[in-house]
Write a structure and sequence with these properties.
The chain is mainly alpha-helical and 198 residues long. The chain has a single domain, classed as Ferritin (Up-down Bundle), CATH 1.20.1260. It has 5 helices and 2 strands; from the N terminus they run ββααααα. The longest helix is centred in the first third of the chain and has 31 residues.
């Protein structure tokens, strides 16, 4: 039988959790903090934040696609791909965090929730069901291609705007790992006999 507890206080402090808190947003999505100690203007930061949020949404989608395929992979290469997809998922977790932190550093608000990501992602949505390995890999390669193109475009725009930090991040921290992951999974589509005829 549940017993109702009286309001608990210690001195003047109420120790019961305030779990029905409601308030207005403190910063709207799509905005940047105007007055902050950053050398870039609010206009440049807003432009970069918009581009980075698109990259973030697509990277979140790619990250989650790796986990989907990790769970649903089957066939003769199951073990290798099961491990590889999970390794790439973990690496994408770090890339997503890197992009999100750059957005916050520029005074922006990161896209974060799955439903919001789904609305703006440019990566084609896979079906809920299981697909054959070559299709899974092809989907991942297409997603990597989209993200790598975005990295190039953002790096170019950041360079033009004098945003060295964003330029460096998208090239060094996002583009290069995506290139490497793309190469690793792409090699699984190379047609190579297991036994050579003599």
């Amino acid at each position: 039988m549940a017993v109702a507890m009286k309001k608990q206080t210690i001195g003047d402090a109420n120790v019961a959790p305030h779990w029905h808190a409601k308030a207005k947003e403190i910063q709207a999505y799509g905005s940047v903090i105007e007055d902050m100690p950053h050398r870039l203007s609010a206009k440049v930061r807003a432009e970069m934040v918009g581009k980075l949020n698109q990259l973030l949404a697509d990277s979140i989608d790619l990250r989650d696609m790796y986990k989907k395929h990790h769970w649903q992979v089957s066939g003769p290469t199951f073990y290798q791909l099961h491990l590889l997809f999970d390794k790439h998922f973990e690496e994408q977790v770090e890339l997503v965090d890197t992009i999100a932190e750059r957005i916050q550093l520029l005074g922006g608000v990161t896209i974060a929730m799955g439903g919001d990501v789904a609305q703006i992602s440019q990566i084609p949505k896979p079906p809920r069901g299981k697909e054959e390995v070559p299709v899974q890999i092809s989907r991942l390669l297409e997603a990597h291609k989209i993200i790598m193109q975005q990295c190039h475009d953002i790096a170019e725009a950041a360079d033009d705007a004098g945003d060295d930090g964003t330029n460096d991040m998208v090239v060094s921290d996002i583009l290069r790992p995506n290139e490497l992951q793309s190469w690793f999974i792409g090699q699984h589509l190379v047609e190579m006999p297991l036994i050579l005829d003599k």
